Each structure stands twice: as C-alpha cells, then as structure tokens.
C-alpha cells in the first residue's frame, strides 16, 4: 500500500463509473466508460475538489484562514475554492481574468453567492503578473490579521497531485468490481495537475495504462513542461525514488479549437449529441473539447490498440450556462 499525505474529506467519493454503450456501438471501437467526477459534490463539483482535499489540509495545518487563488472568469477551480472556504468558515479571494462584458452567470455568479472577494484583472495582467497580484493580496490580508494561503492556477501544485493518485486507487477498486482493466485513461488538461496525479499513480502503483491528456489551451510542449514541474514538486511527498521522461507524458494536441474557453460550433453540437445519446452533459471549456477529441481519435483509428478506455468527466457544468445562446445557435 502506498502512503499518501494527509487530507480532509470534502468530495463525495468514490464517484461512479458508467458504461457508454451506445457511443461505443456508434464508434465501433474500444469499449468506452466514463468516471463521473462531475458528481464529486454540488458546490464543489468537478476535479478540483480532489486536489483541494490535500491542499486545504496543508493550509489548515499551517494555521491559515484564507484561500487566495486565480483563474479565468468562469474558473471552476475558483468556484470550488470559494465553496470550500465558505464550508470551512475561511475567507476566499479570487483573482479572475476579465475579458470585459462578464455576464453574472455560471461560476462567476456562484462565486458572488458564496461570498468570495473578487478582483478582476486584464488578460495581460493575468499572464504576466498573477502570482505577484496574489502575493500583494496576501500582504493586504495579513495587514488585516489574516493568514492567507496561495493556491496556484487550477490547484496544480505538488500536494494537489495526490487528489488524483487517490482517484486512481478508487479506479483500481472499481476495476475489480466491474471486472475490467482500463488500458487507457483520457482526460482534459487545463493546468496539468489532474494529469500529473494520474501519471504519478500509474508509476506508484506500477500500472500499465496509458494516460492521455487532451489540452484545451496552449500546446503539447507547454504541458509536458508544466506537468513535469508539477510532478517534480510532488516527489517531495513520496518516499520512493521515481523517474520519468517527458516522452511518457501523452498529450493529444489539436483540440484547442479557437482558444481557451472559446467554442466552435462542432464542439457545441457534440455536447448536444452526447447529451441526447447518453444522458451525459459535458462542459464547453474542458470535457466537451476533450471528449470531442477522444471520439475523433477513435474515428481516426489512433486508439484501436486499446480495449477499455476510461474518460474522466472532470465537471464544469456551471460553465455551460453562460453558453446557452450559442448552444441554440448551433441547433442543426
Ligand atoms: C480545471 C479543469 C480541468 C483541467 O484540470 P487541470 O488539472 O487543471 O489540468 C478539466 N475539466 C474541468 C471541468 C476543469 O474545471
């Protein structure tokens, strides 16, 4: 048994694994399954809460009473942080990237309900100075007598990685119950922490599954570096020697489309298609693009050497609501 750092219990886990029989049949390829990490909770739904179980435990152990983080205006991670802070009686400060005309909808709306302090910054400021801005916020809060803890974008940091090591332990138990072996695991990649956790677990548990990440921003090269950095940061918490090469990090590039959080009609149509076919609702920013990518890769025959593929539904449902109109524009 591998030893993981301590966590607090925040997520509704284990999450179910469901079969996607109709989609599998339509594609005529490997058997497809979906792990419902969109059901890790209501306010905290999605993948970020798994990371937060370890991150917030560390924050509490350090005596912190405030969580500071950053993200896009519809960031699921920011909303999850605001919800967890409220649940634990902590404060939260969110530094959000603001492209102008933000509808009070989706996660941005929920952040306000949850009582987060929100600071909007421009895309340029976000790109070049978000860490500095979070540090300034920390200093201001310290002056008011708080002890803030800074969480990087997406909660992608060494300690957060263990959320998805824990998820892999869950998957192994479920493999036994279901009598299947997932030889491939596919997920959306936005800041790399979730991928890092599954990759790390694959090593720690000596599994042979291939973990494929489908990036929803930047490119494969960026994420190989980003994931390698998060992995190295996680090694301080494990007591075995691990080695990896960047070549083992599988990123299926080509599904960013028009850019982060910008949807193409074919992606929105795919969300409608899957909702009707399987009764599963994907989000436009991450899982919609990633699963659209997975289906395309299967159609192209690139994944035919796999038998059972597990897609991780990493959540993001609230991000669909600000897209209501565009979904209807692509009705046909
Ligand atoms: C953040 C997020 C991801 C990406 O996870 P990372 O660990 O940031 O790579 C995927 N799906 C959803 C819905 C997310 O909110």
UniProtKB/TrEMBL annotation:
Active site: residue positions: 75
Top-level class of the enzyme under EC nomenclature: lyase
Needed co-factor(s): pyridoxal 5'-phosphate
Modified residues (N6-(pyridoxal phosphate)lysine): 48
Record GO biological process: alpha-amino acid metabolic process
Entries under InterPro entries matching the protein: ACCD_DCysDesulf, D-Cys_desShydrase, TrpB-like_PALP, TrpB-like_PALP_sf
Keyword Cell membrane (UniProt): no
EC number: 4.4.1.15
The Tryptophan synthase beta chain-like PALP domain, residue ranges: 10-315
One MF annotation (Gene Ontology) recorded for this entry: D-cysteine desulfhydrase activity
Pfam families named among the record's database cross-references: PALP
Keywords annotated in UniProt: Lyase, Pyridoxal phosphate
Entry's family note: Belongs to the ACC deaminase/D-cysteine desulfhydrase family.
Protein name (record): D-cysteine desulfhydrase protein
């Amino acid at each position: 048994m591998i030893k993981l750092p301590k966590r607090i219990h925040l997520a509704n886990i284990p999450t179910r694994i469901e079969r996607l029989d109709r989609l599998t049949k339509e594609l005529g390829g490997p058997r497809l399954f979906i792990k419902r990490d969109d059901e890790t909770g209501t306010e905290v739904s999605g993948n970020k809460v798994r990371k937060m179980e370890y991150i917030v435990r560390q924050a509490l152990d350090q005596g912190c009473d405030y969580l500071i983080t950053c993200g896009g205006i519809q960031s699921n991670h920011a909303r999850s942080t605001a919800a967890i802070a409220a649940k634990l009686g902590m404060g939260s400060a969110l530094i959000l990237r603001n492209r102008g005309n933000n509808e009070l909808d989706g996660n941005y709306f929920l952040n306000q309900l949850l009582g987060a302090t929100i600071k909007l910054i421009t895309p340029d400021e976000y790109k070049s100075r978000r860490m500095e801005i979070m540090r300034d916020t920390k200093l201001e809060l310290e002056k008011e007598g708080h002890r803030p803890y800074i969480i990087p974008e997406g909660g992608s940091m060494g300690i957060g990685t263990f959320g998805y090591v824990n998820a892999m332990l869950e998957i192994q138990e479920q493999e036994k119950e279901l009598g299947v072996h997932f030889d491939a695991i596919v997920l959306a990649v936005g800041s790399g922490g979730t991928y890092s956790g599954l990759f790390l677990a694959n090593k720690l548990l000596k599994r042979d599954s291939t973990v494929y990440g489908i990036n929803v921003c930047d490119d494969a090269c960026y994420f190989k570096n980003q994931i390698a950095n998060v992995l190295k940061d996680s090694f301080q918490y494990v007591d075995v020697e691990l080695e990896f090469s960047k070549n083992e990090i599988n990123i299926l590039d080509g599904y960013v489309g028009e850019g982060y959080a910008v949807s193409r009609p074919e992606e929105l149509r795919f969300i409608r298609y899957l909702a009707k076919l399987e009764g599963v609702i994907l989000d436009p920013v991450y899982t919609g693009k990633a699963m659209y990518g997975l289906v395309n890769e299967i159609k192209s025959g690139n994944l035919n050497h796999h038998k059972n593929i597990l897609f991780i539904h990493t959540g993001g449902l609230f991000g669909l609501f600000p897209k209501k109109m565009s979904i209807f524009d692509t009705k046909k």
